[in-house]
Amino acid sequence: MANTSHDEILEKVRTRVFGDIADATEALNRLVNWPYEPNVFAWHGMRFWFDRERALVIPVANLREPLPPRTLPDTDEYRDLIEVYGGDMRSEASDHILEMFGWFLADTQERHFCTMVAAHTLNLAVVQPMFNPAFASLFWLALGFDSRPPGPVSNLYSIVAPMMRDPSQVSLTSETRQAQIAFLNQIVPSGAPSNAMSMDELAWAAYCAEQLSTHRHFWRLAMSQVYGAALVEANESGEALELE
Q1: Fewer Cβ atoms within 10 A, N terminus or C terminus of the chain?
Q2: How far apart are CA 242 and CA 14, in angstroms?
Q3: For the chain, what are the domain ranges?
């Protein structure tokens, strides 16, 4: 990569990272369209179970056999687990997510315990956009925004949770759209258009995607962290880092 510019490197990293998300999306879509047990799919060698009613990804390692057929029962055994991955106890840092993608890039994820951060990433980057299309772009904008100096907040959910939709909702609430608008107004000079509240979900998602494309510095900040983590892994393993 001696003759490759930094911009080209970050574009290659972005392609790989977004490809990882596309692979996970395809795997989950296959599962959703297959109405039979056991609701399990794999991503980077890790196994995840999908709660069809709560639209929630949970590591299989956190569940006991036999796996529930469709949804976790609301019992003492599983209540904390539901809260950790889909409730008020959710907590994950953006730098942990980006570091994990660096491990994927260097193909060293097996050296790390990353099923929890992977499950949160899947719930944010794959599951949430299934019924909240604008979040597909807002998530990456938030990761980039949180990657600015002096560093990330302790819990990424403090930024993104107001912009997320509960899968039990028939449609996006006005409060959720208002939170998404407020976030864009905070991070991009142009902000949201005056008619943002009345835009349908697909038009609003397209506008948010345009902001991600236009304000490249956000995803560049995020991909710089991914690349840095991958370089550390490659140096420690003694293996060359391949981005193709």
Answers
A1: C
A2: 14
A3: 6-237
